[in-house]
Design goal:
heterodimer, A: alpha/beta, nine-stranded mixed sheet, 18% strand, globular, B: mainly beta, five-stranded mixed beta barrel, four-stranded antiparallel sheet, 1 helix, 5% helix, 45% strand, binds zinc ion
Amino acid sequence: MGDVCVIGVGMTRFGKFPERTLTDLALEALLNAGRDAGVDLKRIQAAFVGHVRQAGQGAMLGQRIMRDIGVTGIPVLNVENICSSGSSAVWCARGLISSGQFDLVAVVGVEQLSILGKGVIPPRREDLEGLQGMTLPAYFAMVARRHMYEYGTTLEQLAKVSVKNHKNGCLNPYAQYRREITLEQIENSAMVADPLTVLHCSPTGDGAAAAIICSEKVARKYTATPVRIAASVLTSGTYNGNWRDLTTNDQTKRAAGQAYETSGIGPEDLDLIELHDCFTIAEVTHYENLGLCRQGDGGALIDQGATELTGKIPVNPSGGLLAKGHPLGATGVAQIVEIVWQLRGEAGDRQVPGARTGLAHCLGGVIDGLDLGACTVHILKK
Amino acid sequence: MKEERDSAGRTVPIREGLFAVPGEKPERPYLLGSRCRRCGSVYFPRRAVCANCLGETMEEIPLSRRGRLYTYTIVRYPAPGLRAPYAVGYVDLPEGVRVFSVLTGWDDENLGLGIDMELVVERFGEDAEGNEVQTYKFRPLQG
Ligand SMILES: [Zn+2]
């Protein structure tokens, strides 16, 4: 069995586009990916569409996208796994190609949060925590406070993550925010949940991303140098009888561990990482969860500059969720798009020189009593 | 005051089966947990099936009224329908349960990780019929 390859990628700019529609955003990304691959989209055998259906919109979204390009009759699966919806769609595609069921499929991730109005993403009221005032910023604020207490991590170290990712975002024409910010601006921005101010939080926004994924055999017809998916892992949270350790994330550790093992590529072999920096503290804890440093040393890693664009292991060269933006369903696919551009040497001013391997990590959904809902790790290589 | 409120509406729990308030004064409310008769695992909120061993014989147990603050935050940008600021946190109970809870009796100075907390039942808000909605909260244990 050959490798599963990504032969085309595309996305919309991330931002606030309340006047557009979900299908329109998704189509722009998909057509870009199709052109990039040089593939006639009529040949697509299946489509996997990641979308969170905020406010109940977007049922059968995948079918509506395919309808608009006249690709009908094929299997279309709408995938919802909160922030990991898009990357879970990639996982579906990779698995079904790997098993021989299809050899040319499309993956799309899309979201439009601007039409929900301002503010935090509403928690689910069926969860007792959500009912009693839990919000995503509150959750990560509590993670931050405990991490600071146990490991001496400082608020300034957390803020440095936001400074770094905004700096990278300036170099990305697809980013929602293309402006540098300072430690002072972060400290003086509005408090959302102590100790996190608004510039510690990823923005809400709109956008879409797409990828054309195929078997190695098909890939050879289109390109001499396809990007390969060396590992694709999906995990759910651990149920610990209501004893949740907030400073670590077991499901990210398990997903990364499996990805490293199946690909034979370890954290020391990676040239870049796109990880789920929904809040600054999340990036610091994922340095630890992904094995870039020991538990508790995430703050030191950012101090050393190791994860800067010019550092030992650049993290979120695209600007990450903090600066590039976080249209939930689109996020996981957009990470794949960035890594493919990087591995092909097409990432422009934010190019990591000579990149050959990259890892994408997505994590979504605060659920009562679980770590979080769904985690994916993908490793791509040239 | 109390009678006036009672005539305007009842007091209702935020959800049934979370806590109990015995009649005697002073009030000593407690959380209702489940303990699996087969493996001894303890849960809050209560569960019908043990996630550890799939045992279906669960006994209801009162959980300790005191615990330690694991972490907390003061929410300045509220969840929809709530008014900020409010504090929430996780409190560790001796039964091995880490409980998410609204915090009360706090000010800018008296919260800290590891401090002792005590359970109370208080007003959370009002429902559509004008009833007072109550929930469990933890407050810093004075002295
Ligand atoms: Zn049991």
